[in-house]
Design brief:
Layout: H1 8-13, E1 21-23, E2 26-27, E3 50-56, H2 70-74, E4 79-85, E5 102-106, E6 112-113, E7 118-119, E8 129-130, E9 135-139, E10 165-171, E11 186-199, E12 222-226, E13 239-244, H3 248-257
Protein backbone atom coordinates (compact mmCIF):
# COMPACT_ATOMS: atom_id res chain seq x y z
CA UNK A 1 0.00 0.00 0.00
CA UNK A 2 1.58 3.28 -1.10
CA UNK A 3 2.14 5.98 1.50
CA UNK A 4 0.45 9.38 1.10
CA UNK A 5 1.34 12.87 2.35
CA UNK A 6 -0.57 15.71 4.00
CA UNK A 7 -0.91 18.97 2.10
CA UNK A 8 -0.89 22.58 3.26
CA UNK A 9 -4.44 23.62 2.46
CA UNK A 10 -5.81 20.47 4.07
CA UNK A 11 -3.62 20.95 7.10
CA UNK A 12 -4.65 24.59 7.42
CA UNK A 13 -8.25 23.77 7.10
CA UNK A 14 -9.01 20.86 9.37
CA UNK A 15 19.41 27.06 9.75
CA UNK A 16 18.87 23.93 9.49
CA UNK A 17 20.13 20.79 11.16
CA UNK A 18 20.75 17.85 8.84
CA UNK A 19 18.32 14.99 9.24
CA UNK A 20 20.09 12.09 10.96
CA UNK A 21 19.17 8.69 9.55
CA UNK A 22 19.56 6.00 12.20
CA UNK A 23 18.95 2.29 12.43
CA UNK A 24 18.58 0.59 15.77
CA UNK A 25 22.12 0.20 17.03
CA UNK A 26 24.03 1.64 14.04
CA UNK A 27 23.84 4.21 11.26
CA UNK A 28 21.59 3.02 8.46
CA UNK A 29 23.27 2.43 5.12
CA UNK A 30 20.16 3.23 3.08
CA UNK A 31 21.20 1.10 0.14
CA UNK A 32 23.39 2.35 -2.72
CA UNK A 33 24.88 5.69 -1.66
CA UNK A 34 25.27 6.62 -5.34
CA UNK A 35 21.51 7.05 -5.38
CA UNK A 36 21.15 9.86 -2.84
CA UNK A 37 20.44 12.77 -5.13
CA UNK A 38 23.90 13.87 -6.25
CA UNK A 39 23.61 15.85 -9.47
CA UNK A 40 26.89 14.40 -10.70
CA UNK A 41 26.03 10.70 -10.47
CA UNK A 42 24.80 10.54 -14.07
CA UNK A 43 25.49 6.82 -14.48
CA UNK A 44 23.63 5.83 -11.29
CA UNK A 45 20.76 8.14 -12.23
CA UNK A 46 20.31 6.63 -15.70
CA UNK A 47 21.24 9.90 -17.40
CA UNK A 48 18.91 12.08 -15.31
CA UNK A 49 20.08 14.87 -12.98
CA UNK A 50 18.28 14.33 -9.68
CA UNK A 51 16.89 11.60 -7.45
CA UNK A 52 13.66 11.69 -5.45
CA UNK A 53 11.47 9.59 -3.22
CA UNK A 54 7.76 9.58 -4.02
CA UNK A 55 4.27 9.23 -2.57
CA UNK A 56 0.71 9.65 -3.86
CA UNK A 57 -2.02 11.91 -2.51
CA UNK A 58 -4.48 12.05 -5.42
CA UNK A 59 -6.08 14.88 -7.39
CA UNK A 60 -7.28 17.96 -5.56
CA UNK A 61 -9.30 21.01 -6.72
CA UNK A 62 -7.27 23.39 -4.54
CA UNK A 63 -3.46 23.55 -4.35
CA UNK A 64 -0.80 25.81 -2.86
CA UNK A 65 0.21 27.09 -6.32
CA UNK A 66 -2.66 29.55 -6.48
CA UNK A 67 -5.61 27.18 -6.12
CA UNK A 68 -4.97 25.08 -9.20
CA UNK A 69 -7.18 22.07 -9.91
CA UNK A 70 -4.69 19.27 -10.56
CA UNK A 71 -7.08 17.16 -12.65
CA UNK A 72 -8.08 20.05 -14.90
CA UNK A 73 -4.50 21.29 -15.18
CA UNK A 74 -3.11 18.16 -16.83
CA UNK A 75 -6.25 16.79 -18.51
CA UNK A 76 -5.49 15.84 -22.11
CA UNK A 77 -1.74 16.40 -21.70
CA UNK A 78 1.19 14.04 -21.10
CA UNK A 79 1.91 15.60 -17.68
CA UNK A 80 1.47 14.25 -14.16
CA UNK A 81 0.67 16.88 -11.50
CA UNK A 82 2.89 16.67 -8.41
CA UNK A 83 3.67 18.46 -5.17
CA UNK A 84 7.37 19.07 -4.62
CA UNK A 85 9.08 19.01 -1.23
CA UNK A 86 9.44 22.28 0.67
CA UNK A 87 13.22 22.12 0.15
CA UNK A 88 12.64 22.32 -3.61
CA UNK A 89 10.51 25.48 -3.25
CA UNK A 90 11.78 27.05 -0.05
CA UNK A 91 11.10 30.70 -0.97
CA UNK A 92 7.64 31.83 0.19
CA UNK A 93 6.33 35.40 0.23
CA UNK A 94 5.86 36.26 3.91
CA UNK A 95 3.55 39.17 3.02
CA UNK A 96 1.04 37.24 0.93
CA UNK A 97 -1.28 34.28 1.30
CA UNK A 98 -1.00 33.78 5.04
CA UNK A 99 2.65 34.48 5.72
CA UNK A 100 5.35 32.11 4.50
CA UNK A 101 5.92 28.46 5.31
CA UNK A 102 7.60 27.18 8.46
CA UNK A 103 7.16 24.44 11.07
CA UNK A 104 7.27 23.65 14.77
CA UNK A 105 8.46 20.30 16.15
CA UNK A 106 8.44 18.75 19.59
CA UNK A 107 9.12 15.44 21.29
CA UNK A 108 6.42 13.38 22.98
CA UNK A 109 7.36 15.04 26.27
CA UNK A 110 6.76 18.51 24.79
CA UNK A 111 10.41 19.54 24.35
CA UNK A 112 10.72 21.80 21.30
CA UNK A 113 13.30 20.71 18.72
CA UNK A 114 14.20 21.92 15.24
CA UNK A 115 13.69 18.67 13.31
CA UNK A 116 12.52 15.12 13.78
CA UNK A 117 14.98 12.29 13.21
CA UNK A 118 14.06 8.73 12.25
CA UNK A 119 15.20 5.27 13.19
CA UNK A 120 14.54 2.18 11.12
CA UNK A 121 15.91 -1.30 10.47
CA UNK A 122 18.83 -1.49 8.00
CA UNK A 123 17.78 -1.55 4.36
CA UNK A 124 14.10 -0.68 4.83
CA UNK A 125 11.79 2.05 6.05
CA UNK A 126 9.31 -0.54 7.25
CA UNK A 127 8.60 -0.03 10.95
CA UNK A 128 10.40 3.33 10.92
CA UNK A 129 9.55 5.75 13.70
CA UNK A 130 10.56 9.27 14.78
CA UNK A 131 12.94 9.38 17.73
CA UNK A 132 11.49 10.45 21.10
CA UNK A 133 7.97 10.45 19.70
CA UNK A 134 8.75 13.58 17.70
CA UNK A 135 6.05 15.29 15.64
CA UNK A 136 5.83 18.54 13.68
CA UNK A 137 3.15 20.91 12.46
CA UNK A 138 2.93 23.46 9.69
CA UNK A 139 3.16 27.20 10.39
CA UNK A 140 1.95 29.53 7.62
CA UNK A 141 -0.09 28.88 4.50
CA UNK A 142 2.82 27.63 2.35
CA UNK A 143 1.35 29.25 -0.75
CA UNK A 144 3.01 30.10 -4.09
CA UNK A 145 6.47 28.71 -3.34
CA UNK A 146 9.45 29.04 -5.65
CA UNK A 147 12.97 27.62 -5.57
CA UNK A 148 15.09 29.22 -2.87
CA UNK A 149 18.77 29.88 -2.25
CA UNK A 150 20.78 26.66 -2.14
CA UNK A 151 18.69 24.59 -4.55
CA UNK A 152 20.68 23.25 -7.48
CA UNK A 153 23.48 20.86 -8.43
CA UNK A 154 25.71 21.61 -5.43
CA UNK A 155 23.09 20.62 -2.87
CA UNK A 156 21.46 17.82 -4.87
CA UNK A 157 18.07 19.51 -4.30
CA UNK A 158 16.32 20.35 -7.55
CA UNK A 159 15.04 23.94 -7.96
CA UNK A 160 11.40 23.08 -8.65
CA UNK A 161 8.80 25.39 -7.19
CA UNK A 162 5.33 26.14 -8.49
CA UNK A 163 4.87 26.19 -12.27
CA UNK A 164 8.03 24.21 -13.07
CA UNK A 165 8.26 20.97 -15.02
CA UNK A 166 10.54 18.01 -15.56
CA UNK A 167 10.85 14.64 -17.22
CA UNK A 168 11.73 11.50 -15.33
CA UNK A 169 11.47 7.79 -14.76
CA UNK A 170 10.56 5.58 -11.82
CA UNK A 171 13.16 3.12 -10.54
CA UNK A 172 12.61 -0.43 -9.35
CA UNK A 173 13.99 0.67 -5.98
CA UNK A 174 11.53 1.47 -3.20
CA UNK A 175 11.91 2.44 0.49
CA UNK A 176 11.08 -1.05 1.67
CA UNK A 177 13.87 -2.75 -0.33
CA UNK A 178 16.62 -0.14 -0.23
CA UNK A 179 19.42 -2.60 -0.90
CA UNK A 180 17.80 -4.40 -3.84
CA UNK A 181 20.35 -5.43 -6.47
CA UNK A 182 17.88 -4.40 -9.21
CA UNK A 183 17.02 -1.07 -7.61
CA UNK A 184 18.84 1.01 -10.24
CA UNK A 185 16.76 -0.45 -13.10
CA UNK A 186 14.07 1.70 -14.68
CA UNK A 187 10.39 0.92 -14.24
CA UNK A 188 7.65 1.82 -16.72
CA UNK A 189 8.17 4.58 -19.26
CA UNK A 190 9.50 8.12 -19.06
CA UNK A 191 6.91 10.66 -17.90
CA UNK A 192 6.61 14.43 -17.54
CA UNK A 193 5.71 16.16 -14.26
CA UNK A 194 4.48 19.64 -13.38
CA UNK A 195 4.69 21.15 -9.89
CA UNK A 196 1.20 22.30 -8.90
CA UNK A 197 1.45 22.01 -5.10
CA UNK A 198 3.86 21.85 -2.16
CA UNK A 199 4.67 19.04 0.26
CA UNK A 200 5.54 21.07 3.39
CA UNK A 201 7.94 19.72 5.98
CA UNK A 202 5.65 20.36 8.97
CA UNK A 203 3.00 17.67 8.41
CA UNK A 204 5.29 15.55 6.19
CA UNK A 205 8.51 15.44 8.18
CA UNK A 206 9.22 11.85 7.18
CA UNK A 207 9.16 12.42 3.43
CA UNK A 208 9.58 16.09 2.53
CA UNK A 209 12.91 17.78 3.37
CA UNK A 210 12.67 21.31 4.77
CA UNK A 211 15.63 23.09 3.15
CA UNK A 212 18.00 22.43 0.23
CA UNK A 213 20.64 19.79 0.93
CA UNK A 214 18.73 17.93 3.63
CA UNK A 215 17.75 14.29 3.22
CA UNK A 216 14.47 12.71 4.22
CA UNK A 217 14.06 9.45 6.11
CA UNK A 218 14.54 7.54 2.84
CA UNK A 219 17.87 9.26 2.13
CA UNK A 220 16.54 11.47 -0.70
CA UNK A 221 17.06 15.22 -1.04
CA UNK A 222 14.00 15.56 -3.29
CA UNK A 223 10.45 14.30 -2.97
CA UNK A 224 7.45 14.29 -5.29
CA UNK A 225 3.93 13.63 -4.03
CA UNK A 226 1.86 12.63 -7.06
CA UNK A 227 -1.60 14.11 -7.51
CA UNK A 228 -1.98 12.31 -10.84
CA UNK A 229 -1.61 8.64 -10.02
CA UNK A 230 1.36 6.93 -11.71
CA UNK A 231 0.51 4.34 -14.34
CA UNK A 232 2.97 1.75 -13.01
CA UNK A 233 2.71 -0.95 -10.37
CA UNK A 234 3.55 1.42 -7.56
CA UNK A 235 5.15 0.95 -4.16
CA UNK A 236 6.55 4.39 -3.30
CA UNK A 237 9.21 3.84 -5.96
CA UNK A 238 12.10 6.26 -6.21
CA UNK A 239 12.15 8.61 -9.20
CA UNK A 240 15.03 10.05 -11.26
CA UNK A 241 14.40 13.26 -13.17
CA UNK A 242 15.69 16.35 -14.95
CA UNK A 243 13.99 19.78 -14.82
CA UNK A 244 12.87 21.17 -18.16
CA UNK A 245 10.60 23.89 -19.54
CA UNK A 246 6.84 23.32 -19.39
CA UNK A 247 4.85 23.14 -22.61
CA UNK A 248 3.24 26.33 -23.89
CA UNK A 249 -0.21 24.83 -23.35
CA UNK A 250 0.53 24.02 -19.73
CA UNK A 251 1.99 27.50 -19.10
CA UNK A 252 -1.15 29.03 -20.58
CA UNK A 253 -3.40 26.93 -18.35
CA UNK A 254 -1.43 27.77 -15.21
CA UNK A 255 -1.27 31.50 -15.90
CA UNK A 256 -5.02 31.62 -16.50
CA UNK A 257 -5.93 29.59 -13.41
CA UNK A 258 -3.51 30.63 -10.67
CA UNK A 259 -4.03 33.34 -8.07
CA UNK A 260 -0.28 33.57 -7.34
CA UNK A 261 1.40 36.89 -8.22
CA UNK A 262 3.80 37.13 -11.18
CA UNK A 263 6.70 37.50 -8.76
CA UNK A 264 6.32 33.84 -7.77
CA UNK A 265 6.85 32.54 -11.30
CA UNK A 266 10.27 31.10 -12.16
CA UNK A 267 12.68 33.63 -13.60
CA UNK A 268 12.85 37.41 -13.41
CA UNK A 269 9.57 39.33 -13.26
CA UNK A 270 7.58 36.18 -13.81
CA UNK A 271 9.21 35.35 -17.15
CA UNK A 272 10.36 31.80 -17.85
Amino acid sequence: MATVCTHPLRAAAAAAATVVLLSRGSESRLGDRQLTGSHGQSQSLNGFEYYASSTIYGDTPMTSCGSLDTRELVQGTEYFAVASAQAMQADFDTEAHGGGCSWECQTASGTKIDRCTYEHPPGTLSNSAPLDGCSCKQVGACMCGKAGVGAGPASGTAPMGCFTCGRGHFLQRNPYQLDSADGHKLKGTEIKVVVADVCPYGPNYKWCPAVPGEQNAAGARNHFDFATKPDVKYDNNFFVFTPEACSDELLHRMRNATSCPASTWPGAAGEL
